[in-house]
Specification:
mainly alpha, MetI-like fold, about 85% helix, about 0% strand
């Protein structure tokens, strides 16, 4: 194990950095998608509700490994055949899209639940003061909803971080993919995967403690 750390420790740390980068990029775009579809799901409009429901159900109903293959191989294939141009996605681009879609579906539900947790009287009071619907949503409802959403968002980030391991199937140089290469070179499977497990455990434990501390702080601030 010491030998692996000495020889490949820097490689594994760089791979963990790539893993965190991919998770952050995926979560950033997932928040945008989640906010959009989460707001659609709480509007008093059946068409918007149906669109949000279809997005959430379809994405959550497709295994992430299938989604990864579809984004990385399927989308370029379809565009190349339809448009007749050479179009490819890098592993980072495809991985970000895949994580954003998968995480965005769950974020939409988190945001929908957060908005619905705010007393409906808050919106009615804001509207009675003359605020338009969207301004009341942004200035009154969302700030209160975010207080309850932040712990769930951090937990979703932890899940997304672990899901990056699936994207080794499309060749992204994240931690699991790099560990496979180390095992192929050294034939030290147990030691390598033990190191990877500890690396994941350290990062996820830190994030979990941050989530708990933030949740306690938010609860005290109510």
């Amino acid at each position: 194990m010491i030998q692996i750390l000495h020889t490949y420790g820097r490689l594994l740390l760089q791979a963990m950095g790539q893993t965190l980068l991919l998770a952050l990029c995926g979560l950033f775009f997932a928040c945008i998608l989640g906010m959009f579809f989460g707001l659609l799901s709480v509007l008093k409009n059946k068409v918007c509700n149906v669109i949000a429901g279809i997005f959430v159900d379809v994405i959550r109903g497709v295994p992430m490994i299938v989604l990864a293959y579809f984004v990385f191989f399927g989308i370029p294939y379809c565009l190349n055949n339809m448009m007749g141009v050479s179009f490819t996605l890098t592993a980072l681009q495809a991985g970000t899209i895949c994580l954003a879609l998968n995480c965005g579906a769950y974020m939409a539900e988190i945001i929908r639940a957060g908005i619905q947790s705010v007393d409906i009287g808050q919106m009615e009071a804001a509207r009675s003061l003359g605020l338009p619907y969207w301004r009341a949503m942004v200035r009154v409802v969302l700030p209160q909803a975010i207080r309850t959403m932040i712990p769930s968002i951090i937990n979703q980030f932890i899940i997304t971080l672990k899901d990056t391991s699936i994207l080794s199937v499309i060749g992204f140089p994240e931690l699991v993919n790099s560990a496979k290469n180390v095992v192929a070179i050294t034939f030290m499977s147990f030691q390598t995967w033990a190191i990877v497990a500890v690396m994941y455990l350290i990062v996820i434990t830190i994030l979990s403690k941050v989530a708990r501390r933030l949740e306690r702080r938010l609860n005290r601030g109510r």
